Amino acid sequence: MTSTIIIAFCSLLLIAYVFDLTSANTKIPSVILLLLLGWLIRQMTVFLPFELPDLSSILPVFGTIGLILIVLEGALELELDKSKIGLVVKSFLGALIPLLVLAFIFTTMFRHFGGYSFRDSLINAIPLCVISSAIAIPSVKGFTTYNKEFVIYESSFSDIIGVIFFNFIINNESYGANTFLHFGGQLVLIVIISFLATMGLSYLLHKIDHHIKFIPIILLVILIYIISKEFHLPSLVFILFFGLFIGNLDRFKHFKWIEKFRIDELKKESQKFKEITSEGAFLVRSLFFLLFGYLLETKEILNSETIMWSAIIVILIFVVRFLQLKVSNFPLKPLLFIAPRGLITILLFLSIEPIHNIALVNNSLIVQVIILTALIMMLGLLTRTIKSK
Prior knowledge:
- The chain is mainly α.
- It has a single domain (2-388), classed as Na+/H+ antiporter like fold, CATH 1.20.1530.
- It is built from 16 helices and no strands.
- The protein has helices spanning 2-26, 30-44, 59-77, 85-114, 118-125, 133-139, 145-171, 177-207, 214-230, 236-247, 263-295, 298-301, 304-328, 332-335, 343-350, 363-388.
- Helix 4 runs antiparallel to helix 13.
């Protein structure tokens, strides 16, 4: 049995690798193939001579680690440059405003048609408003540099803002001046922690002479994130801060204190760190979506009671995105189609306590919205390829 599990595990990850390799040519997001593969495996397990254990409890673990590595991978790819300030601002606003607008629209819908409280409606609406960097970033490899950077910034900001917004609503029952002052203090604190932790990790990256050095750094990054999260701090800010610093060492050369890091040597180490982070992100992302696909019930995917709601939500997502891109003077094609929901949507939905769950937002609706947005992105990418030929 042990040999069978190892063979299956290695085979599945190799198939996931093939999906990742071919997605640029087929324009089929690897997440759809991974979900389908996981679902097919679930159907095949009925023929196995043994019963597999319940794997649902480890899904949030893979999701959290995947989120950290994916945001870190995206941040490492971004270049800090004065000429890109406009792009960064547009990306931030492009992540923030649609998220708030959609959250307001969905909250109003849930309150009107379901009679739920404002807070419960908002808690359930936010997961549906976040663009998945886990799906968006790997799907734009063939884009122009400008469009690719916009998607990386936008989806990373969307993840960070979505998680911060969600935790803010979850952790506060009232929203007076004291609440916002406390939240402002948390932001200042995480910025300070991010700076100190980034300096410490960068020093370790340079100083460790042992042949094993990158895994301990990644483990420390995860540890700092989780501890910060336990204290209700917006810990994704730290991940973005650390990634931007490591990925843009040349931009900090004029600071005297940076000379202690020996930039030229640190740059070589940072390049290796990027590579192992990318491979780690691929591994955890693949496992997450395979496992999520495995846990999918056929009746949830084909649930006729939620398909209308799912379609309405997806239509609203792309209407708001259309308006956002028009106002920001970004090209509609291919950016209009890059608004997938995925890892963050699942993680936030799973973290909602039963007392705050509403009947309108259930497993079926979440799954259908994820699949529909991924399919629309796939069709948009295929259309772009056909026209370019």
